[in-house]
Amino acid sequence: MRLVIKAPGKVNLCLFLGPRRKEDGRHELVTVIESVSLADELTITESSADSVRCLGVPEPNLISTALQQLRARGWQGPPLEVDVDKRVPIAAGMGGGSADAAAMLRAARVLAPLPEELAQQVAAELGADVPSQLEPGLVLATGAGERVQPLPPLAAHALVIVPQRFHLSTAKVYAEADRLRLPHAASELEVLRLPLLGALRRGELPSDELLVNDLEPAAVSLRSEVGAALEALRAAGAEQALVSGSGPTSFGLYWGEDCADRAAAAAAQLRVRFPGATAALPVGADAGRPRQRA
Ligand code: ATP
């Protein structure tokens, strides 16, 4: 049997940064995460031993770690060969590694019994960003990103995603954010969370003051090219332009009926200066379902 499964990348429609937590030193976050059609694709076949092929990503691959953890907890699936068609930019703030690991967990459910509680537990242990990717869609994530609340989809919109040629280390961006004193106090974070959640639960677009990534000044401070991409997106008609996660990828949002056409035209225009620029659409759980192939 052969399973093919998409691992959609994500963007952060907003990311508010709070103080470091005492227990693990990670920053508190309030972030809205949206899965997008720019996705990796995993092809999974039965084999004689587990192996993962993923060009451009050094071992240990998060998919291998996911498989090891599942087996260590008694999951009885057959040995698997996993081939990854990597489309989501690597170490770029689009959560590609987390999305791949989450896709592996979704595939594991189909291959052998996997109690939901165990899938959730393994996801949380693999990384704070994995639980939010277990079911593609729109979610509010809090804690260090591991507490996930599903949200109804927003009005019709499209995105233009602008990757960069370089990587940014997540740890360095957070350290720069601390140096620039960007984190909010815990009480401020709560004040920001409530109106954000209220608007999103009603399916409304939060106001522009809430569509902010607190890590943006840190990413721009480390690499000015990120600021240039944001300006280029605005000049190409994006209603909002934001950095995703800790960058360096940025993206623009286009709203309304003709959003897909406008985003496609903007991506074509931006590709001259930013070669990987691509239009994308938001996706839901259906985009992440495993499909069987002969
Ligand atoms: P996040 O937003 O989750 O912090 P990111 O989007 O910035 O992550 P990823 O593409 O997930 O970045 O890669 C982060 C690191 O994870 C890379 O340096 C890479 O070596 C490692 N990694 C392990 N497995 C994978 C995978 N399947 N895809 C991408 N990166 C992986």
Proportion of strand residues: 25-35%
- In which range does the helix fraction lie? 25-40%
Distance between the termini: 7 Å
Coarse shape: globular
Number of helices: 8
- Name the average pLDDT: 95
Descriptive key words:
4-stranded antiparallel β-sheet; alpha+beta; 294 residues; 7-stranded mixed β-sheet; binds adenosine-5'-triphosphate; globular; 8 helices
Give the SSE map.
Elements: E1 2-20, E2 27-46, E3 51-54, H1 62-72, E4 80-85, H2 96-111, H3 116-126, E5 138-142, E6 147-150, E7 157-162, H4 170-179, H5 186-201, H6 216-222, H7 224-235, E8 240-243, E9 250-255, H8 259-270, E10 278-280, E11 291-293
Parallel strand pairs: 3-4
Antiparallel strand pairs: 1-2, 1-11, 2-4, 2-5, 5-6, 7-9, 7-10, 8-9
Helix pairs in contact: 1-2, 1-3, 4-6, 6-7
Write up what this structure looks like:
The chain has 294 residues and is of the alpha+beta class. Helices cover 32% and strands 27% of the residues. The protein contains eight helices and eleven strands. The strands form two sheets. Strands 1, 2, 3, 4, 5, 6 and 11 form a seven-stranded mixed β-sheet that branches. A hairpin with a 6-residue loop joins strand 1 and strand 2. The chain is globular. The mean pLDDT is 95.
